[in-house]
Amino acid sequence: MKGKVYSIGMIGCGVHARTRLLPALKYCRKARIAALADPARDLSAERAVWGGPKTYSDHRAMLDDRSISLDAVIVATPPDSHREIATFCMGKGKHVLLEKPVALTLRDARALVEARDRTGVKVMVGHQRRFSPMDNSVRDLYGKGLIGKTVAINAVHEFSSDSRGAATGYLKKRELSGGVIMEYACHDIDFFRYLLGAEAVEVYARVSSTHADDDTAALVVTFSNGVIANLTLSSCTVDEEHLEIFGTEGIIRSDRYRTVKAEIDLIKGLKDRKMRALKTFARGFKSLMLLKYAFKRNILAAYISEIGHFIDSIEEGKDPVPGLEDGIKAMEAADAAIRSGISGKPVRVCGPEECKGGAND
Q: Does the chain have fewer CB atoms within 10 Å around its N or its C terminus?
């Protein structure tokens, strides 16, 4: 319905919801925060901050409360609870924006597809990098085809406990979170799929544990078009996130902490060493001027656009993207990485016809 303001319920009010999702919701003209539910938190402070939504200690009570009329929910709880909560919400006829990963196990994730098809509601998976201004600048440059045939990707996705908080609770245990591979690598893998238009077919991974199970990982992901992606992740080091896409004619770079948008260097330009040094200096100066603004803008803007797309999909009766199938494709590759980390061998990525269960099933 055009012009409608959609009532949204937030299920799970941890750090991610309070620092990303709820602030983004406040900027969405078509949405309002109508209700909050979290079994582990006193939500009185959140109620005051977010405009007085009703609060609950149980998502079932929130959905059963006839005094509010929710149009949709955002599920931002630990992944082992996603199947039960999302299925309940769909059964109540509510559209669902489900934080990644889709679930802890592939079996649970695939069951959510059945629930969605049975109930007919819209379900979107929160792979917000598809909506990031920084990452879309990468995709825009890449789409011009200037770097020739893509041969490799190098990506670093690392952060400190100072920026995202120390790993506590479910994040400390592989069997509850899947470690950095399931929690964070699925973001990168989804973006690589989105960028390349290709599927991951094989993964080789090495993992280590410092402060929590599997809090550092290195992955080599081979895609169906032959591109090889190297991905390093860690939740126990410094804040660092950059991406390099190598082609036969040049390179595209992005750096979330040092640049405003993606940049490109072509082989013919790189041959001039003086010009290369000048461009490096110019980038550094620009980064000093815009660093803090650009980082905050990119992160919040991604979630605002993500939620906006979710609402537009409901309003227009279209399937949101990324949907459950996209989330499951990223999970299948992450699951192969977890199994590779355990076995020490490369593991082929397989779908439901080939692999009935996964590492956590």
A: N
| All residues at 6 or more sequence positions from 117 whose CB lies less than 8 Å from its CB, including other chains | none
Q: For residue range 338-352, what is the model confidence (pLDDT) as tens digits?
A: 999 999 999 999 877
Contact 135, 322 (CB under 8 A): no
Identity at 237, one-letter amino acid code: T
Q: What is the pLDDT of residue 142?
A: 98
pLDDT digits (tens, 9 = 90+) for 113-140: 999 999 999 999 999 999 999 999 999 9
How buried is residue 100: exposed, middle or buried, by Cβ count under 10 Å (0-12/13-18/19+)? Answer: buried
pLDDT of residue 293: 46
SS (H, E, C) 46-96: HHHHCCCCEEECCHHHHHHCCCCCCCEEEECCCHHHHHHHHHHHHHCCCEE
d(CA 66, CA 112): 25
Instruction: Tell whether pTM > 0.85.
Output: yes
Helices (H) and strands (E) in the chain, counts: 14, 14
Which domains can be identified in the chain, with CATH numbers? 6-127+302-323 (3.40.50.720), 130-296+327-348 (3.30.360.10)
Residues 181, 327 contacting (CB under 8 angstroms): no
The CA–CA distances, whole Å, from 210 to 13, 133, 178, 215, 236 equal 27, 33, 15, 7, 7
Question: What is residue 203's predicted lDDT score, i.e. its pLDDT?
Answer: 98
Q: Are strands 228-234 and 216-223 parallel, antiparallel or unpaired?
A: antiparallel
pLDDT value for 351: 77
Q: How many CB atoms lie within 10 A of CB 247?
A: 20
- Show the low-confidence residues of the chain (pLDDT under 70): 1, 161-169, 270-297, 353-360
Q: Which of 81, 119, 117 is nearest to 98 (CA)?
A: 81
